[in-house]
Amino acid sequence: MTLAIEHLSKQFVKNGEEPVESLVDISIEVNDEEFICILGPSGCGKTTLLRIIAGLDHPTSGSVRIDGLVIDRPNRKLGMIFQDYSLYPWRTVVENIAFGLELQDVPKEQRSATIGKYLEMTGLSEFGNSYPYELSGGMRQRVAVVRALAIDPTVLLMDEPFGALDAQTRNKLQHDLLDIWGKTRKTILFVTHSVDEAVFLADRIVVLTPRPGRICEIIPIDQSRPRDRTGVEFAKVRRYVLDMINQPKWTIQ
Amino acid sequence: MKTIRVMVIALVAVAIVLLTAGCTQPAVKSGNASVNILYSKGVGPLPMLLATNQIDGYIAWQPFVAVAAESRIGKVLTYSGDLPPTGMWKDHPCCALFVRDDFMAKNPDIVNAISALTIASTDYMNAHQSESGELVADWIAGKGNLTYGNVTVSSIAVVHSALPTVKYTTDPSPSWINGTTKFVSTQIDLGYITANIKNATPEQRAAMIFNFGPYQAARKMVDDKKVVTPAKLNKQFAIGYLNGDMHSASLIVAVKKYQYFNDTYGVALVPRDPTQSKPEICDLVVNGQKVAEVKLIGGDAGPQVTQLAATDTVQMGYIGTPPELAAIDKGIPIKILHPLNTEGSGVVVAAGAPVSDWPSFIAWAQQRSAEGKPLTMANPGKGSIQDVMLKFALKESGITIKEPS
Amino acid sequence: MGFMKRGGSHEGLLHPHMFLKVILPLGIIIGWEIIAILLNNEFILPKLESVFAVLLSPTADILGYGNLISNAFTSLERVIFGFLIAAGLAIPLGISMARSAYMHDFFDSTMQLLRPIPPLAWVPLALAWFKIGLASMVFIIALGAFFPILLNTLDGVKSVKRNWIESAEILGANHRQVMLKVVLPGAAPTIWTGLRVGFGIAWMCVVAAEMMPGTNSGLGYLIMSSYNWGQVQVIIAGMIVIGLIGIGFDYLFKVIDRRSFSWRVLER
To answer: From B75's CA, which of A90, A116, B300, C21 has a CA 20 to 30 Å away?
Structure first.
């Protein structure tokens, strides 16, 4: 599986005003089973980039291709988890997870088996019949991930999924995510503005400049996981990235 | 708690406003004695308005005169035939049968048949008053009892007491035609007739208003007991009448005694559901053949029925002459065929009013006017026969009519 | 969902909340009887006995106008008919207006113009267009129910989160599936409220609709005909029946709301 983002640019045009450049010439080659973090300050267009990759928006120029197929509309191969989880409040946990399977008319027994498997994987087996409002933020996040996984996408797109959580929950969920990633061997594109998070999770970090978002650098991280947040290696990479971000010539527009 | 206190104050304030709402005085007018006119929507509210002292009296068609008397809410001042000027209103026209011009042109035999049925029914009523009273009471009130406070009256008793005051006749005699002409002048006087009839010569008026052809044909058919079978009409047509009105009794008796009229004259309005106290759908059956489906539609007052005639919702109607005249004046394409009854209305005043006849009533009106509390008299609707007659009588007696503002 | 807390569902007749709820109606009934006796005028305020006499014989014919029960059923039939027509028109229109800017712009000004006109004002036109009969009555009733349902549908569909729809699209939903599995369930609680309000208004229009000439059944007809004969106790009995049926249906709507849409209240 290759996910190729080629010379992708995005301009927003509002009626009668100057066009606003959001993304300029983004090119990334994502390899199979890679964990990529897209890192950048607010407003740099990283969410826009993720939405375009998902097929929810169109680029002004350039393209997104998965295994050679151009992505210009939502595609089941690319699952997405939104910042606010977007669980359906009128459906139970099981019914939420079943959503994508229902759409494909998967028969009931098969659905139950798949759902059961994912519930176990994320430790949510006891909460199958609960509604989203009964769950904590961390639990809802897990349901969102599993809902996306249930239809077996090749790529998972995640838009700052842990942004709304406290540090402890976040750390735990980062662990859990790596765990799931290890078990399911998906390719993950993970958007964040937290350097720590990116260094902890990613195989490669794509650093974007403030608006208009350009690729500043793509930083590979060769450390084995789980990474020690307090370790020297970790700190070194973190320092490198932070320095890049804090360059005085970058002004937030 | 503060909220409860606020609520209580609000409730008390509302109560005070409601209780004092009726206590405002109209402005005092010096000079000519005047009487306030109140237009009701039909006769229904009239007894209630009288009993709650919102009016001092009313004029209405039977049986609502008898209702007031029987239940002791009010007393009869005078019947309509005796209204001043003396002798003018004797045998005054009341209700008449009308038909739309286009319906008449296309279905003359049906119109004749209905006319014949009406004539036969009227003859029957005059020969069988008591039975007719029961049938009418069944139609207009389900033979039920009317409860007015502590008094309960049977609708049958009310109708029986009212019947003698209604003169059922279908003959368009010269005196009847004369009476209708008087109505035209009165309505012109009052400003109800302002257009077509007003601007026509007397000869033109007769042609605009009347069509006695059906009567002549129908009278002969009834006398011979032979009715011409009309061609079948595939569309339903409708006949309007007045709710709670005894003047359309000929229609009521015709429907109720359908078997008799079918057997005796070969023409009948056969109700689809004879068990209903006032059937809505009937079949016009002539000489054993179903000729048309007929819908009977009750309206609250004459003008409402003529409005239905204007939109071709009804094609024939049993209503008062003045509304028919006003409709013709405004260009609604109908003609009057023949009378249904004469007289049959009356003036009722409050039970405790210091009056016994018309002169004492006028005296009372003058006295109350002088006190700055003019009488309020109600009628079933602007332009109705009762409205016309009362206003004319009051004007004749030197009273100024005060319209509602 | 046992943990759901709702105020007011207290058990026990002697509980202070129960007392508060009952005291005003009781007060009204007692006050009524006292005033009726003092006034001694059945036209202004019939005594309770007169009204109860009517209510307690719901199958007795009233002055040839039918009995309470059959007239109540007739009115209900008409209202339900008009209500369903209104819902059948308003819900699809609301959904399309909410989802398409073109549809919204196309219909919006007309809807705004028509909305403030009370259904009663349409009676003469209804009679002229639909003639006397069920159609004109249903027209008036449907008019009453239409706008609350339309507005709530618009509102409900607009409130469906874009992310919900996009999640569905990403999971592979086509347009029809998005409509059925996301938009409708998401908008359902608001639409339901619109239906509840719309039904209430439709029920209020019954008397207006049944005042039209040519009507010969229904609670509104019974009330107006009793008015004709000054039988105020029948009028009040009819009003009470109308009120009770209105409450009954409102309660039904609320119960279903609680059971199916409680998730809305507790959404974060």
So the answer is: B300
Q: Determine the Cα angle at B348 with ends B346 and B351, to 5°.
A: 155
- Considering its fold, how many domains does chain B have in total? 2
Chain A: nearest CA to C181, how far in angstroms? 9
CATH of C45-53+65-263, one of 3.40.50.720, 3.30.450.40, 1.10.3720.10, 3.30.70.660: 1.10.3720.10
Do B213 and B339 have their domain in common? yes
ipTM of predicted assembly, 2 dp: 0.89
- Residue contact B148–C225, C-beta within 8 A: no
Contacting residues of C for A147, CB less than 8 Å apart: 167, 171
- Residue (of C214, B52, B199, C20) closest to C10 by Cα position: C20
Do B293 and B385 share a domain, yes or no? no
- HSE (side-chain half, CA atoms, 13 Å) at B69: 21
Has residue B359 been placed in a domain?
yes
Give the chain B residue whose CA is nearest to the CA of C228: B44
Structural domain of residue B305, as residue ranges? 95-127+168-343
CA dist., res. B246 & res. B166, Å (int): 8
Q: What is the DSSP-derived secondary structure letter of residue A68? A: T
CA distances from A50 to A88, A177, A189, B75, B242 (A): 22, 19, 8, 91, 76
**Nearest CA distance, C232 vs chain B (angstrom):** 9
- pLDDT, one tens digit per residue, over A134-162 is 898 889 989 999 999 999 999 999 999 98
Please spell the DSSP secondary structure of B127-145, one letter per residue. Answer: H-HHHHHHHHHHHHHTT-E
Residues B306 and B332 in one domain: yes
Closest CA to B256 of B243, B269, B240: B269
Question: Which chains would you list as touching B if contact means 3+ CB atom pairs under 8 Å?
Answer: C
Q: Which of B1, B48, B236, B243 to mutate to test the interface with C (most CBs of C within 10 A)?
A: B48
Q: Rounded distance, CA C59 to CA C70, Å? A: 8
Instruction: Report CA torsion sign: C19, C25, C31, C37.
Output: negative
Q: Of the candidates C41, C61, C224, which has its C-beta nearest B52's C-beta?
A: C41
Size of interface B-C (CB pairs under 8 A): 86
Residues B48 and B78 in one domain: yes
Strand segments (E) across B29-116 = 34-39, 57-61, 74-79, 95-100
Confidence (pTM): 0.76
Cβ(A157)–Cβ(C167) under 8 Å?
no
Q: Which stretch of B312-326, C8-22, C140-154, C252-266 has the lowest confidence by average pLDDT? A: C8-22
Same domain as B295, residue B333: yes
| Percentage of chain B lying above the pLDDT 70 cut | 96
In a domain, B104, yes or no: yes
B107 plus B68 within the same structural domain: no
- Taking the mean position of all CA atoms in its chain, how far away is CA A235? 24
Q: Which of A77, A80, A88, A96 to mutate to test binding with chain C, by most C CBs within 10 Å of its CB? A: A88
* DSSP letter, residue C73: H
Q: Domain spans of chain C? A: 45-53+65-263
pLDDT exceeds 80 at position C2: no
Same domain, B262 and B283: yes
Tell me how far the alpha carbon of residue A39 is from its chain's centroid: 11
Q: How many CB atoms neighbour CB A152 within 10 A?
A: 14
* Residue at a domain's end among B315, B343, B371: B343
Beta carbons of C128 and B280 less than 8 Å apart: no
